[in-house]
Amino acid sequence: MRRLISCGWIIAYRDGAHRLLRNGKVVVENDRVTHVTGGTVEGDFDQRLDLPDALLTPGLIDMHAHITSAPFDRSYVEDVGKPGFYFSGLPELLPAMGAALDDDAIRAATDFSVAELTRNGTTTVFDIGGPGDYTAQAIETAGLRAYIGEGYGSAKWRTRDGKRMSYDWKPDGGMNGLEAARDFAERIDGRANARLKGLMSPMQVAMVTPELLARTKAVAEDLDIPVTLHTAEAVFEFNEMIQREGLSPIEWLDAQDFLGDRVILGHTIFTSGNSWINYPGRDLDIIAQSGASVGHCAWVFSRRGIVMESFADYLDAGINMCLGSDTAPQSMLLAMRAGSILSKVATRDSRRASAREMFDAATLAPAKVLGRDDLGRIAPGAKADLVLWDGMGFSMTPLRDPLRNLVFSAQPEDIRHVMVDGDWLMTDRNLLKINEEHVTRGLQEAAERVWRNMGPGDWAGRGIDQLSPPELEDF
User: Parallel, antiparallel, or unpaired: how do β-strands 386-390 and 415-420 relate?
Assistant: First the structure.
């Protein structure tokens, strides 16, 4: 297939940066962009799109997602939290939900997620957790691009009394889970025109041994795939590492020689200097010097009253900053918007982080850590992962600076077409590979079953209305 797309505005890539091309044209041949120009294009085309009121951008890259469970966060994790756990939902809310999930519910969440990601302009997703085989099949069917990792660890944390965290260490140190994750990564590598790739994910810094980290690093290098782990995501986790190791989570990872340019540190909110922990040190310098990246998920933390202090400071330290969704809604628009606004609040500076910095974090920065100069940009040779936005919608009009409109005003409804690998996944706001009514109804039915099953996973056996009381009383 050879296609010609003409748009009023194109965010195109040249000389190492995104640039604005007005009244431009993009030629797509099969799965790649071959020409980007403001002039005329000769030749025959199988398809022509002439959209003078549209904005064409590269597809967005979500570098931290949990698509098998994130939809169930809706109407469950908001407006609740314990001061003793510094308002983290990890000790009580997530274990209770996790125990209530069954295989059908996980599949329903996955099917819904791939539709939600497409509708929000995400073309590449970094999925963490598992189960991997169903996730891979759902993503392949939906036509998305993905790096998928089955999570593993040396321990699991839990609270036995609602006051403190304890750690249950596995006899094998998590090695069996690691090898299963390796097998899965090898199994999916190259599927779907190489849209599917594996990743290694030792889930959490406080629940891994030095031996598991060393083995993870060796496997990732052998398979040439990235690594991600959650780190510095909770105050109790930070305190655990200080008490156990005498080092911050970042200092400890550095001491294990684990950090590197293929490592994405999930969240990394509670670093030295953060006001919640008041711990001196040089965590940001360590990350920057190691070449590791950070996958920042602003919305999930701001919902708990926590902000990164600050995104602009991480950038200024020289860290490759990426963005992720982590929770519901799975929207990179929200990730960019919340990330920018909360950085402005934390720094008391309306200039940082800018729309351009946030858009780079959703496109070019993820491509850098993935070692993919063919993603996150519209340029000759790049993969044809494209999003077309209606420039005349209520959220986008008047259109002067497309990037600012995109980051601060755009809504998913402004997306008209989505292409991945040269294949249309959505046209005229209609999903082409997914039955939208089926997946939304399936998620609702699964959620109602999960809510009824809440209790066994909670240390006190509480149901959902005790863990997360409804906002309104019944009429």
Answer: antiparallel
- For residue 91, the 8-state DSSP code is T
Which pair of tokens denotes residue 195? 């849209």
Residue found under tokens 């993503």: 139
Instruction: Report yes or no: 369 and 293 within 8 Å, Cβ to Cβ.
Output: yes
Query: What is the pTM (predicted TM-score) of this model?
Result: 0.97
Q: What is the pLDDT of residues 446-467, one digit of tens each?
A: 999 999 999 999 999 999 999 9
d(CA 128, CA 229): 9
What is the tens place of the pLDDT at every residue in 15-69? 999 999 999 999 999 999 999 999 999 999 999 999 999 999 999 999 999 999 9
Angle between helices 436-452 and 93-100 (to 10 degrees): 110
Domains of the chain (ranges, CATH numbers): 2-59+378-431 (2.30.40.10), 60-370 (3.20.20.140)
SS3 label, residue 209:
coil
Q: Hey, CA dihedral for 65, 67, 69, 72, is it positive or negative?
A: positive
Other C-beta atoms within 10 Å of 176: how many?
12
SS3 386: strand
